[in-house]
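Format notes (please read before filing issues)

Several people have asked whether sequences and C-alpha cells are stored in separate files. They are not. Every record keeps both together, in the order shown below: the sequence lines, then the C-alpha cell lines. Line labels are part of the format and must not be stripped during preprocessing.
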Amino acid sequence: VQLVESGGGLVQAGRSLRLSCAASGFTFEDYTIGWFRQVPGKEREGVSSISYNDGTTYYEDSVKGRFTISSDNAKNTVYLQMNDLKPEDTAVYYCAAGEFYTDYGEGMAYWGQGTLVTVSA
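Then the structure lines:
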C-alpha cells in the first residue's frame, strides 16, 4: 500500500502548481482522500478532502476559492490544483486516505511521503 505525491516545487506568489497523489496496492474506492500540509515546527493542518464515493469536496477557509481537489478514478489519482499561491502556502504537502477527514488527519490510515511546495514573495 503506497501513496506517492508529486508536483511540488518552487514558484512565485500568484502562480499555480498541481499536486498529484497516486495510489498503489489499493484503490481509492470507498475512501476519503485528504490533502494536508505542515511547516517545520508547526502542527500539520488539513487543506482539502474528497470523498471517492460521491465526490463531495471540502476546503479549509485558507484555501477556499484558490485550491481545487479532483480525482481521476481510472488512474487512481487525486489532484490538488493550487492557484494564486501565497508565501504562507509554503509547506510540505501530504496526501492521505482513510475513513474520514478531520483537520488534523486522525481519520487517515495511509499517508504519502510528502512533496515540498515553496512560494516566494
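For reference, the curators noted about this record: DSSP finds no helices and eleven strands in the chain. The first strand starts at residue 2 and ends at 6.
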